[in-house]
Amino acid sequence: MIDYKNSGILGYMTDEDLDWLHQTVLTLPNDAIIVELGSFQGRSTVAMGAACVGTHRHLYCIDKWEGVFPGASGENIDAAAAFDVFQTNIEHSDLEKFITPIKGTTQDIVGSFSMVIDLLFIDASHFFQDVLDDIVAWTPKVKLGGIISGHDWDRGHCEVNEAVIQVFGQQMVARQKNKRFAHHIWDLVKDQNYVE
Ligand SMILES: C[S@@+](CC[C@H](N)C(=O)[O-])C[C@H]1O[C@@H](n2cnc3c(N)ncnc32)[C@H](O)[C@@H]1O
Predict the structure, then answer these.
(1) CATH code for the structural domain at 4-189
(2) What is the residue extent of each domain of the chain?
(3) Which is it for the CA torsion 191, 23, 14, 63, positive or negative?
(4) Closest ligand 1 atom to 9 CA
(5) What distance in Å separates the CA atoms of residue 32 and residue 25, rounded to the nearest whole number?
(6) pLDDT tens digit string along 65-75?
């Protein structure tokens, strides 16, 4: 069992966030396709990857790996080293066979991504227009009954919240409030009401 809460990997996920990711992946079919937009050094990736062990679930990680990212503060690392750091962290966790990294922008990659997604987790750029574009471009790839989710549903990330509400409406606000959860992840199940 991978101790994903003590991976030592730098990132912005709380223990509760990591638990949500891990537990959610455990609920998915044995052959689920998972897509993470914005993996940074792999902190969230390892929590999800740990729930793929012993299954045919597979996680695709899309990131520019340029070392810096817009819309968030924190440690920036050398651009040349960014991807290597991610890869090393995945290797140390023994998860290479469950994880496929795809280097590029979320908008460049979406056109060529042809798999049907069971779980989409959005945590790339945190600017309003970028979050909106990611939701709109990637949600059509999620199967009906699949889960659309993202990080940073909290007061400090107004632009993320605004983009989520713009696409999914005010019911999202009520839904998230009612949950009173400890983590910072917004989520919903894709249903017939979603119009592409
Ligand atoms: C907040 S970090 C992700 C944190 C990560 N999920 C974790 O657990 O630590 C955001 C990441 O998104 C990437 N990113 C930002 N904008 C992007 C874009 N347009 N396309 C691809 N990756 C992007 C950055 O390179 C950065 O690694």
Answers:
(1) 3.40.50.150
(2) 4-189
(3) negative
(4) 9
(5) 8
(6) 987 654 444 55
CA of 41 to the centre of ligand 1 (A): 9
Distances (CA, A) of 24 to 113, 116, 118: 22, 17, 11
- Give the model confidence (pLDDT) of 76-130 as tens digits: 566 778 899 999 999 999 999 999 999 999 999 999 999 999 999 999 999 999 9
CA 17 to each of CA 59, 94, 181: distance values in angstroms, whole numbers, following the listed order: 17, 21, 10
pLDDT for 191 equals: 83
Does residue 19 have its Cβ closer than 6 Å to ligand 1?
no
Distance 94 CA to ligand 1 centre (A): 22
Structure tokens at 179: 């949950």
Q: Which of 135, 176, 112, 114 is nearest to 38 (CA)?
A: 135
- Overall pTM surpassing 0.85 (yes/no): yes
